[in-house]
Amino acid sequence: DHNISLESMGVTVNAVAGALKAFFADLPDPLIPYSLHQELLETSKIVDKTERLHELKEIVKKFHPVNYDVFKYVITHLNRVSQQYKTNFMTADNLSICFWPTLMRPDFENREFLSTTKIHQSVIETFIHQCQFFF
C-alpha cells in the first residue's frame, strides 16, 4: 500500500531494512541461488566490462521466476536509494556491503568462501549500479 507512511508511524529506515534482511534470512534458500554463486564468481573475473555485464544478465535469467521478480524489485529499490547518496550516504558500494550477505546467504564458516567476499559484494554493487541494464 503506497499510501502508508512508515515515517508518520515512527518506523525508522533501519527498522525497515532490518525487517527486510530478517525476512530474507528466514527463507529456506537465499534469493540468489547457491547453484549460481560459482558462475557469478567466474563472471566477475571477465575483464571486458560489456562482456561481463552481458554474462551477468544471462545468469540473472536463470533465477526462478519468483526470485527474479523479487531480486529485480530489491535491486531497483537499492538503485533508487543509492541515487540519494548525498542525503543518505548510502552509495551503491555501501548498500552492496550491507545487502550482499542477505541476498546470497554465504557460508562464513568456509575459509575458501571468505576469500571471495569482496567479489560477491562487487557483483551486487554492479547489479545496483546497472539495474536498468539488467531489468
Automatic annotation (TrEMBL):
Specify the superkingdom: Eukaryota
Give an example GO biological process. Rho protein signal transduction
Cellular component, GO annotation = cytosol
Molecular function GO terms recorded: GTPase activator activity
Signal sequence extent:
none
Task: Please give the InterPro entries that the UniProt record associates with this protein.
Answer: Rho-GAP_domain (IPR051978), Rho_GTPase_activation_prot (IPR008936), RhoGAP_dom (IPR000198)
Q: Which residues form the Rho-GAP domain?
A: 1-135
Question: What protein am I looking at?
Answer: RHG05 protein
Q: Which organism is it from?
A: Zapornia atra (Henderson crake)
Q: List the lineage, top down.
A: Eukaryota, Metazoa, Chordata, Craniata, Vertebrata
